[in-house]
Amino acid sequence: MPLTLTHPDFDALVVGDIVAEQSFPLTRDSLVRYAAASGDFNPIHYRDDVAHQVGLPGVLAHGMLTMGFAVQPVVDWIGDPGRIRDYQTRFTRPVVVDPAIGAVVAVIAKVGTLDAEARTVRIDLTVKVGEETVLGKAQVVVDLG
Question: What is this structure's pTM?
């Protein structure tokens, strides 16, 4: 029997609906593993001394890792990453990963706009570490047609 992918019902969505929430804990170990997977071995992602030498408050998470965390709740909600038509954001604050306690990236995905003709929905993402927003104008356009 063939696999049938289902996705959210466009007609049931309302602007302002929260469609997904998720938190992603980060440790220094997470950053080293991501560096190995991505090939980005910039030492600001794993060495405090280098981060401080270039004026940073400490070791930072990779920007693309943060972007990946931010979009993951949307991918899980739609069930098919191929339905993402556009994903944009601005980096507003670095994600500092404390050596002892790490950091937690929290994501809330909310319906921003609905395009009935195209059957697309723009999902607005709120991405924070603690009380600080780390990605601004984070938006994902999803095809639900």
Answer: 0.92
